[in-house]
Amino acid sequence: MAIWxxxxxxxxxxxxxxxxxxxxxxRMLASGARVVGGVNARKAGTTHEGLPVFGTVAEAIKETGAxxxxxxVPPAFTxxxxxxxxxxxxxxxVVITEGVPVHDTTEFWAYAVxxxxxxxxxxxNCPGIASPGASNAxxxxxxITTAGRIGLVSKSGTLTxxxxxxxxxxxxxxxxxIGGDPVIGTTHIxxxxxxxxxPETDAIVMIxxxxxxxxxxxxxxxxxxxxxxVVAYVAGFTAPEGKTMGHAGAIVSGSAGxxxxxxxxxxxxxxxxxxxxxxxxxxxxxxxxxx
Length: 291
Description:
The structure is a single chain. The chain is α/β, with parallel strands linked by helices. The chain has 2 domains: 113 residues, Rossmann fold (3-Layer(aba) Sandwich); 146 residues, Succinyl-CoA synthetase domains (Rossmann fold), CATH 3.40.50. Helix content is 35%, strand content 23%. The chain is built from 9 helices and 14 strands. The strands form 2 sheets. A 7-stranded mixed β-sheet has the order 3-4-2-1-5-6-7, with helices on both faces. Strand 3 and strand 4 form a beta hairpin.
């Protein structure tokens, strides 16, 4: 069992013929993911990496039955690419692109909502989603963990990989990298709800970072709706106040958005919070060993 991405998922790649699109299409195929085609209006009718290239997402869906799109297009064109996916009503659109203007993300997110919310958007500026042993949509390495019963939701790509690797002996149902921009599609809360509802996810790792109030809102949601054990890590305990760190959303104002404030909010509702990624993995290991 997995959330949003299964062995039956059929993936198309918007921007498949570009450098990054080509590289990661190869990786997804090598991992066993069912990549069925690509989209590039200028190269419609050709093949690339042995896969058909279509002019539009709608065409690709009609010809292949695709239900997932992974977006590898430059930031300037990402808004239109996502809108095209939304117009085609693809159920899942994973936006890998980094550097998308926040105004553009706000616009395509509002567009998706106005269209009835038929397309789940993950990202932008994210590593994607992986259900080990089943499918892989994005840039998460396919060989660092095994299939298992831990769910993971993370703002950080590299920390996603680290936790997946450190807990590889227990394995994961699904790992979702939601991205660290100020405006994103799928949130911690969306993933927490999906993992709570998934009968084959036993426990959840949540990785946050300084800035904003997403983790505090997630804590409030956990208190009301999540009965499964949750372990968390908040990146940025040593970040200086008022300085943007890495992700565009990771900026602290006063006491709001600090790692300590987030840690306290999570611990207040019973979430165990590690001070380092390795300590977080150890806390989850204790929970899984006790099951």
